[in-house]
Structure formats: C-alpha cells, structure tokens
What we know:
- It is built from 16 helices and no strands.
- By secondary structure, it is an all-alpha fold.
Amino acid sequence: MMRLVRFFPALLLLAPAAAWAHAGHPHPEPPGWSFEPWAIVPLFLALVAYLIGLARLWNRAGSSRPVVRRNAMLFLLGWFMLAGAIASPLHEAGGRSFTMHMIEHELIMMVAAPLLALSRPLGVMIWALPLRARVAAGGLGRVRAIVPLWRWMIAPVPATVLQGIVIWAWHAPPLFSAALRDEGWHIVQHLCFLISALLFWWAMAFGPGGARGIGLSALCLFVTSLIGGALGALMTFSASPWYADYAAMGMTPYGLSPEQDQQLAGLIMWIPGGMIHAGVALMMLMRWFAGGARARSDAWPVQ
C-alpha cells in the first residue's frame, strides 16, 4: 500500500505517459489523442450550438450579462474538461490501465458534470435554433408527460439513487469488461456516467431550497461519498484483480502489478472522489448556516 501512495502523485501528473511505461511489457507507442466520431461529433455540435445561442442571447441579456458571462465560463471550462477526458491521451491510456480509466471517469463525473450542470446550458442552446424550433423546444417544458418525469429525475433522492446504481453497476466485472471489449458498450458506459452525474449535480445545485431542501441535498452528497467510497475501498483492499482484461496485460504503469493498479484506482475513487462530495456538502451547510434560510443559489458554494 505504501508503494501505491508513493506513486500516486506521479501518476496524476504523468497520466498519459503512465499507461505505456510498463516494465517488461512496453506498448509500441504511447497513447495518443482519440478522434472517435461518437465523442468528437457531439462535443463539436454542443459547442457550436452553445456559442451560437450565446451570441444571440448576449444581445438581449442587458443587465443579466454578468450571469450569462459566468455561466458561459462554467460551460466552456466544463466542456474542455469533458473533451480532455474522452479525447486526450488519457482516454486511450484508460484502455491499458485501470488507474487511468478511473481518472477519466472521475474527471467526467466530478469535474466536467458539475461545471456543465451549473452553467445551465440548455436555455442558451435553445437560442441557437430557428424561431419555430425554439418555440417548440420551449413548449416541451409544459408537456404533461414530460414535466413530472423531469421533476422526479432531478429530485435529490432519485438522482442520488440513480447515480449510485450507475456507479456500482458499471464497475461490476461483467459490464466493465464488456465496455473494455466492445466500443458500443464503452459509449453506453460513458453516457451513463455523464447523464447520471449531470442529473445528480443539477439536483444538488437547483433542487428545493430552504432548510429542508438544502439539508437533504447535503445528506445526499454525504451518502454519495459513502457509495463511491465503499466501492473504492473494496477495490483498494481486494487481494485479486476484478477485471480479467486488465489482468491479462501483466504489468501496468510504473511496474505495478494488476492488483496494485486496481488498488490505486480504488484509492482515487475512494479518497479524492469522496472528498469532493463531502466537501461540497460541508460548504453548502456552512454557507447556509452563516446566512440563514436563504435561497438555494445563495447556499451553493460556487456562487
């Protein structure tokens, strides 16, 4: 375990290189950038739609321009973090090392997703549509069949349960191994991680306000830290590798065995992941206690 702790900072700083620095089992070349259409096309279209909508909305924003500017910065930062996770050498490295795969997932769910959720991008993207399509899209928010389902999905408890199921299910060996072997399942895995995380962070940021609502969201954040932490702890203290495809590669980054590679990945899920959820919960409670029962937007720590 001490060896894992010693290697932890270096792996975070040298993630792309780590996946090919295998002692005795070198890959022919280091991991490179991934320009897979399933990732690049949606990313590009989302960015173009947001920028067009932002340009149109900016002319009408007036006194709301500081809010629009802040949300745009959050979106762009979240977009670049998401693009970096699924298109940079880290993505290809994740196919060779479980540790790199875990870092990729943590960036998607713990960094990119909250930034994108806080930016509230859908309202801006709608402005990229022609007038008729914009009116039709706005009308979806009044469809009786959609509104109750949407409200249920972004409620704190259902969003927490959904994300917990996604995390545990996709780290079960059968599904995880399927995602490693089949590109289609790999795409589904990333979509599940991203969508469940977006719903979760949306629920945490924009769910019910007041003492009860903020307290419930803080509790959900603590519970989520335990859900991910428990899975990470199981990986960390496991004496044998869970995933045969990774184990078959033999040695992994910096000469770590498959067991050590999995243990390091478990540490990443357990400690940094748990600290993010627990830290946000504590900041929400501290700001709320300091200011009394204020609106949710005042209690959310980044605003």
